[in-house]
Amino acid sequence: MGEEKKINLLVIPDLFPKFEGDVQGIFILDYLTCVKDYCTTNVLFMRLVGKKGLHTQTTEDATIHRYCVSSSKIPALLKPFAYLIWFIKGYQIGKQFKDTDIIHAHGTILSGTLSYLLSKKLKVPFIITEHQGPFSMTSNSFWKLRWTRFIMQRANAVLTVSHHLKEEILAAGIHPKKIIVTHNPVDTHLFQLKTNTAITNNILFVGRLDEFKGGLRCLKAFEQLLPNTPLYNFTMVGDGEEMQPIKNYLESKSELKARVVLKGSLTKAEIAKEMQQADFFIFPSRHESFGLVIAEAMACGLPVIAGNQTAPKEYVKQDCGLLVPPDDIDAIAKAMQQMINTLSAYQAANIRQHIVSNFSFTVFGQKLKDIYEDESK
Predict the structure, then answer these.
(1) Number of other residues whose CB lies within 10 A of the CB of residue 51
(2) Which of 49, 71, 91, 115 could serve as 105's disulfide partner, Cβ 3.0–4.6 Å?
(3) Is the pTM of this model over 0.85?
């Protein structure tokens, strides 16, 4: 029998790495890797500002076409005109991919609209993966909600990265033809089962230091543990708006400061190494559309402490960790102490298997392939 014909896929993302090592939109690279055995993929990434013009790069997983409208900052008054150029040029470039079987947009208002226009021109289906969390950023805006509803209800399918996000979309009065929960892929090859089985006396937080993620709240919770856990340290990976407040908080607390390590931003590979050196992971974010870093920690076999309000509660089960009210510092501290006391009850291999079985590249790639084939019929 001959080799199965590959699907010609056009991916149009709102976010995508601008250069080697850029973390913005890096999750799209995982999507591309997942389907590389099934698809011949072109990525069309449109930006307002950057290296002006069209620039094409071929990788192992896809051919990347980057287009920037301008090489310099665009004044606010000219932004509407710049976005008009964005759409015109995106349409001109996109319509050249005449062999496309299906278009996959990541994001609705910009990439979804361009995908809708191109799907009509190329006479192919288009689907949207929505990642936004909280969805209230869209639903609380009069024009954003109405335009999102218009585009989503014309897509062949809307994919969401959690059941929580699906329910938010439906609650906003948006009723797509199909809405499918896919979750996100997790790189279980990079995030391997922890090989250091000895207790490391190290608690790990990884994430942007944005206030809603809970970095400072975790630090204050860890401070409550100091009298009872003299051997434990707290490692924080990330940067953002809370970095300076965290440094200020530590400055007047010498005992706490001696037990806290601020790593700043790290690459994915460096984060995977940090996870190998931790006893457990903590990330009590108020809202996550999926919570990829939590799943990555679980792929390393780490038990986790996560917020109990949004998507993480869908896969952080009792044998994998604890769920806490994200704004309750006392509850976070209590959960940290409980996990220290009961670490031996968690089975690293079982925690990892939960992620491998549900979110690995192999599982996720097959899921996307099935969706592409169903929608292309």
Answers:
(1) 13
(2) 115
(3) yes
> Exposed e or buried b for every residue in 85-115, given b needs 16+ CB within 10 A?
bbeebbeebbeebeebbbbbbbbbbbbbbbb
CATH class belonging to 202-358: alpha beta
Q: Indicate if the alpha-carbon torsion angle 22, 133, 169, 83 is positive or negative.
A: negative
Q: Cα separation of 35 and 129, whole Å?
A: 15
Task: Please report, as a single letter, which amino acid is at residue 373.
Answer: E
- Domain locations in the chain? 7-185+360-376, 202-358
- Joined together, the tokens standing for residue 323 give 């769920």
Residues contacting 210, CB < 8 A, separation 6+: 240, 241, 242
**Residue 68 and residue 65: Cα distance in Å, rounded?**
10
Q: Name the amino acid, one letter, at 182.
A: T
Angle formed at CA 273 by CA 268 and CA 278, multiple of 5 degrees: 120
CB-count exposure of residue 57 (10 Å: 0-12, 13-18, 19+): exposed
Grouping H, G, I as helix, E, B as strand and the rest as coil, residue 57 is strand
Q: What is the DSSP string of 305-361?
A: EEESSSGGGGT--TTTEEEE-TT-HHHHHHHHHHHHHTGGG--HHHHHHHHHHHHBH
| C-alpha to C-alpha distance for 191 and 60, rounded to whole angstroms | 21
pLDDT for 133 equals: 83
Give me the residues paired with residue 39 across strands: 7
In the predicted model, residues of the chain with pLDDT beneath 70 are: 1-3
CATH architecture observed for domain 7-185+360-376: 3-Layer(aba) Sandwich (3.40)
Q: Are 184 and 161 in contact (CB under 8 A)?
A: yes
pLDDT tens across 16-60, in order?
998 777 778 899 999 999 999 999 999 999 999 999 999 999 999
Sign of the Cα pseudo-torsion (255, 256, 260, 264, in order): negative
Omega cis (within 30) before 134: yes
Reported as a single tens digit per residue, the pLDDT across 299-325 is 999 999 999 999 999 999 999 999 999
Number of DSSP helices (H) and strands (E) in the chain, helices first: 14, 14
